[in-house]
Amino acid sequence: MSDDHSPEYYKKKFIPLIYLVGGILIAGTIITFAADLMGVFKDFTHAMIFALTVAVVKASAVIYIFMHLKWDINLKTISLTLGCTVIFLIGMMVLTVGSEIDANKPGHAENTWNHVDKPEPTVKPDK
Amino acid sequence: METTTQSETEQNEHGDDHGHGHAEQSFLTKYIFSTDHKVIGIQYGIGSLVFLLIGFILIMGMRWQMAKPDTPVPVLGPILEKVYAHEIALDGEGKTVPIFKDGKITASGYNQFGAMHGTIMVFLAIVPLGFAAFGNYVVPLQIGAPDMCFPRVNMASFWAFFAGCIVMTVSFFIPGGAAQAGWTSYSPLASVIPTDGQSYWLVGMVLLITSSLLGAVNFIATIIQLRAPGMTWFRLPFFVWAQFVTAFLLLLAFPPLEAAGIMQLMDRVCDTSFFLPSGVFAAGTEPMNVSGGGSPLLWQHLFWFLGHPEVYVLILPAIGMVTEILSNNTRRPIWGYKLMVGGVLVLGFLSFIVWAHHMYLTGMSSKIATFFQTTTMIISIPSVILLTCLFMSLWRGAIRFNTPSMFALAFLPMFGIGGLTGLPLGFNFTDLHLHDSYYVIAHFHYVVAPGTIFALFAGLYYWFPKMTGRRMSEYWGKVHFWGSLIFMNIIFMPMFIQGFAGMSRRMSDGGATYSMINNPDVTSGALTDSIMNMNSLITMGAFGMGLVQVVFIVNFFWSIRNGEKADGDNPWKATTLEWQTPTPPPHGNFLTEPKVYHGPYEYSNPDVDNGEDFLAQNDPHKSTSEDIREAQA
Amino acid sequence: MEIPYYDKERPDTGLYNGKAGIWLFLASEVMLFGALFSAYVLLRVGAEPGTWSMGLMNQWVGAFNTLILIASSATIVMAWVCLKLNDWKGFRKWKWATVVFAFIFLAVKWSYEWPAKFTHYDVTFATNESASKVFTDVLGENFEDQQKSIWERRYDPTKEHAGGVDLKDRPLDGHIVAYIDSNNVEHSIDEAWGIPFWSHAFAWRHDRKNIEKEKDKSIRYDKDGRPVYKQGHYRDTFRDKDIKAIIIVPAHGTWDRESSGDKHASRATVKYAEAKHDGNHANSDAHEHHRITIAREDISRLSSYEPAHSTFFATYYTLTGLHALHVLGGILVMLYHLLPVSRRVYEKNPVQFTNRIEITGLFWHFVDLVWIFLFPILYLF
């Protein structure tokens, strides 16, 4: 942590926070797992949104409390570095996956320069 | 001599004071397993210069093959035949032949030379020389730090680089030879190629990337944490800014390639199909025994996510060095220092979202292509800002035409040609015609060869007195410069024309087969004789270029012991901190902690009465005009 | 001059050197794992129907390991707080707890989870007729519904690919217990191989396409008829060992003939047999198992759950393997901090030692963070 707190602060404030975050993490894991076991989500997109939301909540708790970013967030070095990293990461994922999805879209072939020889996407025949 | 002796004595006197507590170091810890950033910088420098030469020898072999296809290579041939005694299968008939039969370069050998020329030049020569060697030696000195932030991590970085170099070198001598899939290692070719060279390449790359990551962490932490008192962000020399941005590019762009390298290694070793689509064919008539379902484009995305920032990793340290040298040799401040800093930051940021302009031919949709085309055009703006500022800095300067400044001056138009010829490649519609032609080769070599390498030469001539206490010979330096400038242009200028004429960059016989030169009946679609004859011209240029570099090598080694002694610790009368410490700098760099009072480019300031035309950064003399400027900012 | 700010914070940045370094390092790690995540998403989006074999994972092991890693993340921050409170004994207690948790994590993964997969085989069939013959042998005459539900659960849980794939492309899974060579001699796997499961995975591979490959002239063969280069892509256990047929025990709990469809309604209750068996079937209750003999001609592809099995397993092993290497690195650093010498380091400069523990903790939390994302995308959904 950026500023040194008194021992009292650690005992009274920080240790309870650790237990709280531990509880959040365990609860999040159990919720996700239970949703999977009970088959709550039939559809991939909703399942992914749910799972990643819970994961992001868990991850934020870890970053904010366990990695004590809560107390360090005003340090420009850390916040700018993390900010840039997150932006580049999202850029990489969105553009990479986006170009792949876009290129595979049925009926999309005429938008690309090589539409002449593009074969039809192969789909296995129904049984 | 007096200066050197004096500083050595001072170093010994202060040996106990600087606090590291190891006054006596054995040869091994002082020069081999050293944690001193200066020694590590020199280690990097020697290693990368050796690989610069090796990479150049490889291209000379390739140029011979292009100019005179299927004739034995003069000097290299017999050696190659001995070294490359192992055989490789040729497709179709199951026959095996030596890679270098009768001293001739076969297609496989040409592919190996091509792949390794690119890899060695980019990852083993120029990045280690520009970023690691000069960065290690100069950056801590320029910011007034005693060493890098994490000296042992620094050493680990060098030894990871060394291990990577060993793996890459060894790959030439394994059965089947080195990697053959080009420096970009596109899958599925790279995944299914039957020789082991590609696996060695991947292991080598993982080591080199690890080295770069450790180095990048160290550079950024050093620049953030260890700036001397008074060294505010806008008092940093521009070279430090360039290294700072370069380190960030390496830090965030290299890991995706490491991930991709691991995946391709899995493809090759564990037979997975990350980059192999279903039903892929390789060297046969049946689909391969792989699960399939992979995406070859995934490799290209991850590769170019590094690949494009890598361009700026190559060029930014060079621009930084040119800035330092030009400012010093024009004896006037850099025009638009803050503009340049802003430009370099924007450049670094944007370089992460332009990568797919290397991939227009992969059939991406016009939406995505338009996005990348737009960002590519936008990123040319900060590049132009940097170049314009440097040109403006020359205006009304009293330019000293010594060797480093001539190399730095030549950098500007050469880099300009390289940059401007890149614009047609950034547009989707023109790139479709020019892609994979010699035009592309000429474009990026103008950026890297007469661009970055000239700047690196300038840096070598400029900081040589700091490292050794002696100057390199001016006369032979100028011979080196004029020779290099002329031959560089003889080599690369005709390639633009060849590229426009449609010569592909992948032809191992220089286009002889493609142009149907041996079949006079066929005329359509062939390359004309004048285009083909340029191959010989370029090859002659390349050999002339090699001859001129001999001058440099001799000059370099001769000057270490016999060069003219530099007058004092600050022979160039420079302002930055590395010249305000003894030559060579002692362990711990500075005898007392430097205090910084001024910006980096206080040349010819009429307000200063210290009897010189420059004001060192740690000179306590007042400069009223600078104070006013800082107050205004 | 000495390197400043190695223990105390630099006033204008608020950081000591190590902390700046570790955050930068973690930023690069984010990009490393982020690139692999991108690869995962891209491959999954582009996967052909019935090839994303995620339903084969054992979620219980994954959930257990998640809780273990969460616990270790909490204990390591407790260790650091103890040092802040000058509680040396508390520090050692929590630190040891972290090491133990981390070790359990690795033990579960490397001695149980992976080996169980390496000994577990998928067989797909040459024709629909041969598939039908084998499934009848396994499940009885009316195998259709049960077989289809098993396949959907594993390869198509969201039923996006209605109709599915051909019967011959729906795998039967189980453990290979023996093979029959061309002289009709039966060899038990143990006596024939006698090798641990690690190499087991790479020893058994067959693809029908390889039968034609034997005459492929573009590949060099040595005097024993093995390809010289890049063996993996052309390796074939059946050809190399001259195998005529294999004897396989279908995975217990999945392919039980008497089980009804209702029993398998929930995915969790029907995980394949790895929870109950290891590779050595002779010692388990294998006698009750149905031994199925499948001839070489009927098999189109045989592969264990190794990386080459499918793109899903390729990403699974790469992601978890890289993550496990990080765990291993963390264990080594933590053990270094638990050496007796650390007490002297601590007394010499308590601030510096506490900082080191903080940095280790930051790294360890990142490892935990990666797993938080890995668990749902690799095991659950």
Describe this structure in words.
- The complex is a heterotrimer of chains A (127), B (633) and C (381).
- With 127 residues, chain A is mostly helical.
- Chain A is built from 4 helices and no strands.
- Chain A has helices at residues 7-37, 44-66, 69-72, 76-104.
- Residues 107-118 of chain A have low confidence and may be disordered.
- Chain B is mostly helical and 633 residues long.
- Chain B has helices at residues 2-13, 27-32, 37-67, 76-83, 107-142, 151-170, 189-192, 197-225, 238-269, 296-330, 337-350, 366-394, 403-420, 423-426, 428-434, 438-468, 474-500, 529-562, 624-632; strands spanning 87-89, 96-98.
- In chain B, a hairpin with a 6-residue loop joins β1 and β2 (96-98).
- Chain B is globular, with a radius of gyration of 25 Å.
- Chain C is of the alpha+beta class and 381 residues long.
- Chain C contains 13 helices and 7 strands.
- In chain C, α2 packs antiparallel against α3 (88-118) and α3 (88-118) packs antiparallel against α11 (311-337).
- Chains in contact: A-B, A-C, B-C.
Question: Which features would summarize this protein structure in a list?
Answer:
heterotrimer; A: 127 residues; mainly alpha; 2 domains; 4 helices; 0% strand; C: 381 residues; Four Helix Bundle (Hemerythrin (Met), subunit A); seven-stranded antiparallel β-sheet
Short characterization:
The complex is a heterotrimer of chains A (127), B (633) and C (381). By secondary structure, chain B is mainly alpha-helical.
Gross morphology of chain B: globular
Uncertain parts of chain B: 1-22
Our count of helices of chain A gives 4
- Order of helix and strand elements from N to C terminus of chain B: HHHHEEHHHHHHHHHHHHHHH
Strand content of chain B: under 5%
Summarize the topology:
The complex is a heterotrimer of chains A (127), B (633) and C (381).
Chain A: H1 7-37, H2 44-66, H3 69-72, H4 76-104
Chain B: H1 2-13, H2 27-32, H3 37-67, H4 76-83, E1 87-89, E2 96-98, H5 107-142, H6 151-170, H7 189-192, H8 197-225, H9 238-269, H10 296-330, H11 337-350, H12 366-394, H13 403-420, H14 423-426, H15 428-434, H16 438-468, H17 474-500, H18 529-562, H19 624-632
Helix pairs in contact in B: 3-5, 3-6, 3-18, 5-8, 5-9, 5-10, 5-16, 6-8, 8-9, 9-10, 9-11, 10-12, 10-13, 10-16, 11-12, 13-16, 13-17, 16-17, 17-18
Chain C: H1 17-45, H2 59-84, H3 88-118, E1 121-125, H4 128-139, H5 144-155, E2 172-181, E3 186-188, H6 189-192, H7 197-203, E4 205-207, H8 209-213, H9 231-234, H10 237-241, E5 243-250, E6 292-295, E7 299-304, H11 311-337, H12 341-348, H13 350-380
Antiparallel strand pairs in C: 1-2, 1-7, 2-3, 2-5, 4-7, 5-6
Helix pairs in contact in C: 1-11, 1-13, 2-3, 2-13, 3-7, 3-11, 11-13, 12-13
